[in-house]
C-alpha cells in the first residue's frame, strides 16, 4: 500500500478502509467471499500487462507463451474439478460468461447451419443478403429462463438486460404456494414456447435445482440446456451438490462466476460439452477482446485450492451454516421464502416487521451486518424497495464461523429488525426508505459483530 500511497493517497486510504470495514462487519452478502492471499497476490502481477487475444497456441499477439501456460493450467483445473469436457476461462465476469455462452450457442445452432445452407466456407464468404438473413434468424431465437423476482438473474432474459433484447424471452417462476420450482409448469411452458435455450440457475433461490429434470424438459422440446451456476459453483466444486444437483453432467453449457462461493478472483468461466467447445472457444471475437491474464492466473490458483479436501469441508460448512442461520431465524419468528434453505443462501421476507427490504438492509448495515435487499416472488414493493433481504454464508464460513455462531447472527438480525420501525412521511404514510432503529439494538449488534 505504501507504493500506492505515493501516487494516489486517496486510493490507498480507501483500500485500507475497505479492509477495516470488511473485518469489522459481518459480510452476509450471498455473492461475496474472502479470496485467499495467494489468489489476491496472483491478481496483482505484471501478467496484467500482456495482451493475448485468441486461444492457447493461437494468439493474435506475439510473446504469449507464458499466458498460454496460465490459460492452459486454469482450464485444466476447471475441467478436472468439474468433470467437464471443455473449459473456457477468459470471461471477465459472470455477465461476460453468459454473453459468451449465448453467442456460442447461436453460432453453433444458427450460424453454422446457415453457413452450410448459404454454401459459405466461413463468415467472410457471406454476401450482404446472407448477413441480413442471418441477423434476422439471430433475432428470432427464444430463451426461457427463471424470472428475476423468483430468483433468476438479469442475464436470464430480463427485458432491460441485453439478454431480454437479443432473444424473444419468457420466464418461469415458482409455485405461488410453496415458492418452489414446479417442473411440470416449466415443462408446460417449454412445450408451448419451444425455446432454443432453456436457462437454469439463480441468484436468489434458496433451494437446490434438479438438473436431470431440466435436461429432460430441454430434450423434450429440443432446447439447449444452459445452467448458470454462478452462485453455487463452490457447492458443486466441493461435492455438496452431486448427482442430479450437479449441473455439469446434464447441461450442454454451464456458466459461472469465480468469485462467489468458489472463492476465486472476480471473473467468469464457461464449461461445455465437446460439441459446443469450438464455438465457445470463439469468445474472442464473439464478445470478448484481450483476456485478463493476471485474473486467469488467479483463477488457476483458486481452482487448485478448490480441488483440495479442505475446500470440500468448507463447502459443506457453507451449506450447514446456511441451514443453521435459517433455523435460527425461523425460531425467532422471521419469515423465509420457501420456509428455509438447502443451499448457501436465505431469503428473508421482512413484511411481518412492517419494513421494506430497503429499510431492513439499511438498519442491518448500521448495526454491522452487511446484506442486500432483494425482491421476493411477486414482490409488492418492486425491485428498488423490495420486501426481502438476501443472506448468504460463503464469506462468514471462510472466516471460520460455525453453526453456533450462525445462531448468534440470527439473534442479532431478528433483534435489529424487531427494533426498527418505519417513519412516516409528511402525509402521514409509512415511508419505504426511512426508519427508526433503537440505539440499544444498534449498539448491541455492533458490539456483537466486533466480538464475532
Ligand atoms: N449469473 C448469476 C446467477 C449471478 O448471480 C451473477 C451476479 O450476481 C451473474 C451472473 C453476473 O456476475 P458478474 O457480476 O460477475 O457479471
UniProtKB/TrEMBL annotation:
EC number(s) reported in the record: 2.1.2.1
Amino-acid positions noted as binding (6S)-5,6,7,8-tetrahydrofolate in the UniProt annotation, renumbered to this chain: 148, 152-154, 275
Gene3D superfamilies assigned: Aspartate Aminotransferase, domain 1, Type I PLP-dependent aspartate aminotransferase-like (Major domain)
Name assigned to this protein: Serine hydroxymethyltransferase
Cofactor: pyridoxal 5'-phosphate
Subunit record text: Homodimer.
Ranges for domain Serine hydroxymethyltransferase-like: 5-108, 141-413
Biological process, per Gene Ontology: glycine biosynthetic process from serine; methylation; tetrahydrofolate interconversion
Naturally occurring in which organism (per UniProt): Tessaracoccus flavus
InterPro entries: PyrdxlP-dep_Trfase, PyrdxlP-dep_Trfase_major, PyrdxlP-dep_Trfase_small, Ser_HO-MeTrfase, Ser_HO-MeTrfase-like, Ser_HO-MeTrfase_PLP_BS, SHMT-like_dom
Chief place of localization: cytoplasm
Enzyme class name: transferase
GO cellular component, as recorded: cytosol
Keywords of this entry: Amino-acid biosynthesis, Cytoplasm, Methyltransferase, One-carbon metabolism, Pyridoxal phosphate, Transferase
